[in-house]
Design goal:
Blueprint lengths: L7 E3 L6 H8 L7 H20 L8 H19 L5 H11 L21 E6 L11 E6 L15 E5 L8 H4 L4 H10 L7 E5 L20 H16 L9 E6 L1 H12 L6 E5 L14 H6 L2 H4 L10 E7 L3 H17 L2 E7 L6 H18 L9
Parallel strand pairs: 1-9, 4-5, 4-6, 6-7, 7-8, 8-9
Antiparallel strand pairs: 2-3, 3-5
Helix pairs in contact: 1-6, 1-12, 2-3, 6-12
C-alpha cells in the first residue's frame, strides 16, 4: 500500500562559515596568483627571445609557458588539480590509462582522531566487476575504543566522467577535508562516506547501468557494495540511514539508482544533475532505456516511503540550474522532500561539486532516520 506523502521544495541547509570557506578555498595549484606569475613569466620569455633574436628552438620556452599558463587558468576555474597526486592522476588519464589499472593514489595519513581513509577492494566477477576499488572515509572517533559499539549512516558517492574514479572525491572533491570540517564544527553527526568505482575497472562510462552483455553496475552498486560495506564496517544497515550521491555523470547515477532502488537508499544527492543516460549502451532495448531515463519515468514514479533529494548546480551552467528546478518540481509532485542549491559564479566543474559537498552531506544527515548526537 502506498503511503500518502506530501513533497516540499526548500533551499537546503545553512552551514558555518568555516565549513564553506574550506570547501571553496583554493590550493596553491588552483591559485589565481599562480596564473598571474606564469603569465608574467610568459611575457618575459617572449621579450627576451625577441630582443636577443634567439634561435627558433628558444621559441619553445614561451610557447610552453603559455600552455602552462592556460592550463593553470583553466584549473583555477575547474579545480580538478589540487595536489601533485591529482596532477599525476590527470597525466595518467591523458596518457590513456585509467585510475583502476594503476596503483592507487596514496592514502593521506590519518590525523589522530581525524578522518581515516580505508582502501578496500570489492570485486564481483559474476557481475562483470573484476576489481571494485573503493575508498571508505571513516569519521573522527570511529577507531576510539569508547565508541566501539557506535554505528554510522553511510553516504555513497559516485564520480563523474570521463575516466573518473573513486579518488576524484578525495582529490578535487575534497571529501576528507569536508567530512573533517563537519565533524570539527559539530555541524552533522558522524557518518561514513564511501567513494565507489563506477567504471568496472575499465575507465569506461557505463552510466551505472546493468548493461546487456556488459557489467551489471546497477546491481553491483545497489547490492554488492552496500552489503560488503555493511559487513566490514560499523554501519546502520538500513535504507533510512543510507544515501547515494554524485556529480555530473555520477549525479545521473545517483538519481537513477536512488529512484529505482528506494528500498536501498532514502536520500539522493545530485550535484550538476542529468535526467538522461545519454548513451547507446541500451541501444536495441527501448523498454530498458525508458526504465533508466528519469525524465521518462518520473511522471508516474511511485514513492512508497519517505524520500529526500537535494539538487545542486553552478549558476553559470544555466542548463544544470534549469534541470535542477524541473527535477525538483517533478519530485515534489511525486511526494519527495526536495532541496535545491545553486552556486553563484560557478559552472559545471569539480570545484562546484566540492563547494556543494558539505551542503549535500548535511542535507543527508538531516534526513537520516537514526540521528545520533552530533558531539562525541
Amino acid at each position: 500500500m502506498r503511503v500518502a506523502l506530501t513533497g516540499a521544495i526548500g533551499p537546503g541547509p545553512q552551514l558555518p562559515a568555516s565549513v564553506t570557506e574550506q570547501a571553496g578555498g583554493r590550493s596553491p595549484l588552483e591559485s589565481v596568483v599562480l596564473v598571474v606569475v606564469l603569465a608574467a613569466l610568459t611575457v618575459l620569455a617572449i621579450v627576451v627571445v625577441k630582443r636577443r633574436r634567439m634561435r627558433r628552438a628558444a621559441i619553445a620556452v614561451p610557447v610552453l609557458l603559455a600552455l602552462v599558463t592556460v592550463a593553470a587558468g583553466v584549473n583555477s576555474y575547474v579545480g580538478y588539480v589540487r595536489s601533485l597526486d591529482d596532477l599525476g592522476r590527470l597525466l595518467l588519464l591523458a596518457s590513456g590509462g585509467n585510475q583502476d589499472s594503476e596503483p592507487a593514489t596514496p592514502i593521506p595519513p590519518a590525523v589522530p582522531g581525524g578522518v581515516r581513509v580505508a582502501d578496500v577492494s570489492l570485486p564481483d566477477p559474476g557481475l562483470g566487476i573484476p576489481t571494485g576499488r573503493t575508498r571508505v572515509l571513516l569519521p573522527p572517533g570511529y577507531d576510539d575504543p569508547a565508541h566501539a559499539d557506535e554505528r554510522y549512516p553511510v553516504v555513497y558517492l559516485v564520480h563523474g566522467y570521463p575516466s573518473g574514479g573513486p579518488d576524484d572525491w578525495l582529490g578535487p572533491g575534497g571529501a576528507v577535508q569536508t567530512l573533517q570540517a563537519l565533524a570539527d564544527t559539530r555541524t552533522t553527526p558522524p557518518m561514513i562516506v564511501v567513494a565507489v568505482d563506477a567504471t568496472a575497472g575499465t575507465g569506461t562510462d557505463w552510466e551505472c547501468l546493468d548493461v546487456p552483455g556488459g557489467p551489471q553496475l546497477e546491481t553491483y552498486l545497489t547490492t554488492t557494495v552496500p552489503r560488503e560495506v555493511d559487513a566490514r564496517f560499523r554501519t546502520l544497515p538500513d535504507r533510512g540511514d543510507r544515501a547515494i550521491g554524485g556529480m555530473s555523470g555520477g549525479a545521473f547515477c545517483a538519481l537513477n539508482l536512488g529512484l529505482r532502488n528506494q528500498g536501498t537508499y532514502s536520500v539522493v544527492l545530485a550535484s550538476e544533475p542529468s535526467d538522461d543516460p545519454g548513451t547507446d549502451l541500451l541501444a536495441g532495448h527501448p523498454d530498458l532505456l525508458r526504465a533508466n531515463t528519469p525524465r521518462e519515468y518520473l511522471p508516474t514514479l511511485q514513492i512508497p516511503q519517505p524520500l529526500a533529494v537535494m539538487l545542486h548546480a553552478g549558476v553559470v551552467a544555466h542548463s544544470d540550474v534549469d534541470l535542477a528546478y524541473r527535477l525538483a518540481d517533478q519530485l515534489a509532485a511525486r511526494g519527495a522532500d526536495v532541496a535545491v542549491r545553486t552556486e553563484p559564479g560557478e559552472w559545471h566543474t569539480w570545484r562546484t561539486a566540492r563547494i556543494g559537498l558539505p551542503y549535500l552531506l548535511t542535507f543527508a544527515a538531516e534526513h537520516f532516520t537514526d540521528r545520533p548526537p552530533a558531539e562525541h
